């Protein structure tokens, strides 16, 4: 397991120190380290040559002016973060140095030359940039910024820090780890991102699908010839991609969270700085994704709890309605029972006639054998035939319309 210090060394390289001893107002090189000649852009032996003649563009740089001032003033001078561009074209590289200019004096104290001592600060600047970008990402994660925003910022940060052009992609694993979904890829073509969104994890499914399946980095240095890209070679060609290095993003328990890929436009073998950059940010990506999953789980649990509370409230309201209805029915039943008891008492006190009272206007001389009553307190005695007729007719009338008056209406028919 590599240390963080080792990763930073691989990422930013070793610091360079330069030294040169110059003579006279023309700043003739008397002695210098090879690193000095490499920095000023002329690696040939330049001993005995005026500094201005060692590189065609040196006069335009910020090196000669301070030399002239120190030679005139005989005072030391220090400049911080002096910018020096090394190489040309695709090989151009920006570097920075802290440079000290010390006057050289003879026995009489006169300035005879200048000592140049420079220490490269490029690594410090890049490390500061890395820490600032990394801190910003951690702050985004802490304030629960959307996962897509965090991953997009991380991808752009890596693309800016990489020493050579790189296109970064982050894919997110489904819950079952069988498919990979688009997470972030700000520099890849949209049609490419759409085409690989939802690819399966498995052996031979490009760099990312294979890395997710193996749970280990997969380095494809030439997409045009590697069999892992047989099914995606045409797509990669249309996207202008020549190499792809993919690393699985794993949770603390070893489960798959996604993949982190670095694409290049030409076939390339990864340098130590590329691998170090991947290691530095892999943990940050895992932290962001795990935090996102935790937040989703929390929101889901809160939604389920809220739904359960709402269902409980509905059940309580339904129970209250049923209880109120039951109380109303109990009150009505009590009132009806009281009414029936009162009617029964009234009926009990009425005298028992000798003849049937249910014969209507024509009367009936048959013996009164049965007493017929209704809930309104009306009652009458009748013979068997008329009692049966009254029961049938009064019950029917009572059911059809209570306003007919029950037995009273029947008696007055």
Automatic annotation (TrEMBL):
InterPro entries in UniProt: GAF (IPR003018), GAF-like_dom_sf (IPR029016), PAS-assoc_C (IPR000700)
Q: Which keywords appear in this protein's UniProt record, sorted alphabetically? A: Coiled coil
- Which part of the chain is the PAC domain? 78-133
Source organism superkingdom:
Bacteria
Q: Which residues form a coiled coil?
A: 298-329
Please identify the protein, giving its name as recorded. GAF domain-containing protein
């Amino acid at each position: 397991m590599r240390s963080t210090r080792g990763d930073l060394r691989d990422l930013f390289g070793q610091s360079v120190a330069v030294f040169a001893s110059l003579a006279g107002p023309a700043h003739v090189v008397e002695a210098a380290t090879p690193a000095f000649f490499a920095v000023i852009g002329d690696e040939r032996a330049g001993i005995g040559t005026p500094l201005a003649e060692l590189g065609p563009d040196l006069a335009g740089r910020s090196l000669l002016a301070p030399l002239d001032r120190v030679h005139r003033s005989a005072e030391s001078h220090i400049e911080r973060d002096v910018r020096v561009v090394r190489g040309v074209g695709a090989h151009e590289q920006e570097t920075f140095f802290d440079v000290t200019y010390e006057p050289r004096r003879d026995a009489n104290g006169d300035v005879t030359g200048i000592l140049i001592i420079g220490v490269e600060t490029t690594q410090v600047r890049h490390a500061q940039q890395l820490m600032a970008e990394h801190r910003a990402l951690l702050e985004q994660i802490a304030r629960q910024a959307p996962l897509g925003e965090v991953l997009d910022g991380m991808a752009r940060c890596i693309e800016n820090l990489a020493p050579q052009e790189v296109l970064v992609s982050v894919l997110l694993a489904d819950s079952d780890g069988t498919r990979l979904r688009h997470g972030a890829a700000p520099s890849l073509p949209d049609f490419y991102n759409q085409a690989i969104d939802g690819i399966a994890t498995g052996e031979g499914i490009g760099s990312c699908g294979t890395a997710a399946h193996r749970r280990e980095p997969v380095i494809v240095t030439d997409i045009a010839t590697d069999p892992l890209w047989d099914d995606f070679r045409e797509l990669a060609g249309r996207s202008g991609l020549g190499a792809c290095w993919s690393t699985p993003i794993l949770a603390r328990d070893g489960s798959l969270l996604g993949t982190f890929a670095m694409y290049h436009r030409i076939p390339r073998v990864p340098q130590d700085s590329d691998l170090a950059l991947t290691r530095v940010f892999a943990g940050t990506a895992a932290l962001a994704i795990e935090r996102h999953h935790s937040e989703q789980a929390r929101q889901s649990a809160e939604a389920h709890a809220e739904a359960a509370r709402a269902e409980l409230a509905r059940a309580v309201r339904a129970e209250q309605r049923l209880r109120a209805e039951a109380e109303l029915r109990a009150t009505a039943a009590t009132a009806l029972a009281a009414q029936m008891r009162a009617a029964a008492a009234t009926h009990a006190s009425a005298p028992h006639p000798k003849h049937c009272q249910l014969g209507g206007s024509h009367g009936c001389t048959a013996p009164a054998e049965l007493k017929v009553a209704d809930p309104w307190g009306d009652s009458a005695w009748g013979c068997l035939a008329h009692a049966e007729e009254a029961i049938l007719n009064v019950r029917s009338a009572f059911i059809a319309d209570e306003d007919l008056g029950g037995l009273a209406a029947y008696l007055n028919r």
